[in-house]
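Morning!

This is the sequence you dropped in the shared folder:
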Amino acid sequence: RAKGEEEVKKWEDVYKPTPVVAPLNGFVIQRSVEPGQSVATGDPILVMADYLIVNAQVDETDIGKIKIGQPVNIELDAYLGQEIPGRVEHIAYESQTINNVNIYEVKVVPGRVPAFFRAGMSATVNFILSEQKDVLVLPLNAVKKAGNQTYVFIQKQQGKKPEPLQIKAGLENSLNVEVVSGVKQGDEVVIPTVKMIEQLNSRFEHRRGPVNPLQKKSND
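The structure's back. Tokens below.
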């Protein structure tokens, strides 16, 4: 009987719950064992991450614009429309060749880690090169360029054709353009049609003067 009690105690000790204490605060991103599985000293049980890093790939033609500490906006492909601020932590010294293009890996640290962040997710990183606050902006497709000049189309009177108006543009991104001067808040700016753009280009060509008659056209 004593031997049986010793055997029971032995197996009770074997299966006694043992606390697992992590050496850092973080997130469990992988479990390496299943309940009841035997492990030996040194076997990994859990994989943890104390913070998540976004690895961005930047073309060599743009890498000169990226600086350590530069602010960025991170948008996960699975959660479009939810931007998370971050900053550049590291820029690789050695390039990689992907699809015959030299790219540099840039490590970006999120300013905060939402609950829906997961390791391995795809993301788009927008690097903020410069920014302006409290400025007048217009949609990118409302602003057109003719030569070295920038125009918008203003609806001055209802029922009348919109008129082109030269403006001075500032910073722009993939969506909006900053308007430095030329229009003011409250002006009615319309999105130009193809015909309106053609008329603008035609007017600009006319201002440049007659074409050299000796100059051959590309379709000759």
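Headline: Residues 210-220 have pLDDT under 50 and may be disordered.

More detail when I'm at my desk.
O.
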